[in-house]
Amino acid sequence: MILVTGATGMTGYFVVQELQRRNYAVRVLARAASIAKAPPGADIAIGDLADIASLERATNGVTGIVHTACTFTDSNVDINAMQALLDGWQAGPFIFVSSLDVYGFAQVNPITETHPLNEDYGDYARGKIVCERLLTQKAQALGRRDYAMLRAPYIWGPHPKAYTMVVKPQLLAGEPMILPGADEAEWSQYQDVWIDVRDLAWVVAEALERPPGGPLNVLTGHFTWHDLYTAVIRLTGSPSELLHKPLAALSPDEQKALQLYAQTWRFSAEQLQQQLGFQPRYSLTETLAATVAQGKRTV
After folding, report:
1. pLDDT tens, 219-260?
2. Tens-digit pLDDT profile for residues 194-208
3. Which pTM was predicted?
4. Could you report the per-residue pLDDT of 132-188, keeping only the tens digit for each?
5. Structural domain boundaries in the chain
6. How much is the CA Rg of the chain, to the nearest whole Å?
7. Which class for 23: exposed (0-12), middle (13-18), buried (19 or more C-beta within 10 A)?
8. Whole-number pLDDT of residue 106
9. What is the distance between the alpha carbons of residues 294 and 10, in angstroms, rounded to a whole number?
């Protein structure tokens, strides 16, 4: 029996489906109000990240833990929940879905798993870093190698949450989408990373079966923000236009708001490929099309 937290969210839901496809029995942690969103066929443990006793009950008798749940807003709750799950970790691997945010605004490319972590990047990143540390310390204290921290990027796919991530309000309102960059030579350098949630679920399942015993950068590839929003505008039929502005021409408030769109980082997935043999099944075009199609059906 594998415990999966966050199974009523996007990543956890697809992880449960992948594990069930591999004939694993799955227990999911879910709040009472969210039971209807739980994947069918799973054993349900009523609980919440803030309810430590419920986490203790959920871990009872399981043979592995996949921790995808996160408050996204309160690292103290996330850290306390991680400690409770680790206290209940007895048999089988522990797989933690972390984030590439742990590196902060990294300055050295390519960014590998050995790059220093940055707790000052924000509360969310701090929570992930501390949770990773707790997992590593627990595993070392027990002399175990059956664990993993999967540092994930933007996660998209056929789920309503992904739709709200890629289809910004200004696109729905037909307003211009402002991106940094004086010309193509500049904006083509600004990029970030992504993975399809179905591919991430495969990685989680593989890590459960072949635990790497440490962190892995988990990603399909890089994209430019110009190409991303060009595709989203086309797929949604939005009348919005992309407006590129040189960074020097932006106000301080605009520069702060567009800071994430002006990064030139590149992340290495070499260890992921070497240790788990990951080969992405979905292109960015396919993933965005599935994301928008699912969103249109549910919005």
Report:
1. 999 999 999 999 999 999 999 999 998 877 778 888 888 888
2. 999 999 999 999 999
3. 0.95
4. 999 999 999 999 999 999 999 999 999 999 999 999 999 999 999 989 988 888 889
5. 2-156+193-220+267-281, 160-191+222-263+285-298
6. 20
7. exposed
8. 82
9. 12
Predicted pLDDT of residue 27: 97
pLDDT at residue number 299:
54
Residues 6+ apart with CB under 8 A from 185: none
Neighbouring CB atoms inside 10 A of 104's CB total: 17
Torsion of CA 189, 198, 38, 131, to 10 degrees: -60
Thinking of the domain 2-156+193-220+267-281, which architecture would CATH place it in?
3-Layer(aba) Sandwich (3.40)
Say which residue the tokens 């990603």 belong to.
Answer: 219
The angle at the Cα of 193, spanning 111 to 238, to the nearest 5 degrees, equals 155
The two three-digit tokens of residue 9, written as one number: 């969210």
- Break the chain down into helix, strand, coil percent, rounded to 5: 45, 20, 35
Decide if pLDDT at 263 tops 70: yes
DSSP characters for 234-255?
A: HHHT----EEEE-GGGS-HHHH
* Contact by Cβ (8 Å): 168, 234: no
Q: Are 64 and 88 in contact (CB under 8 A)?
A: no
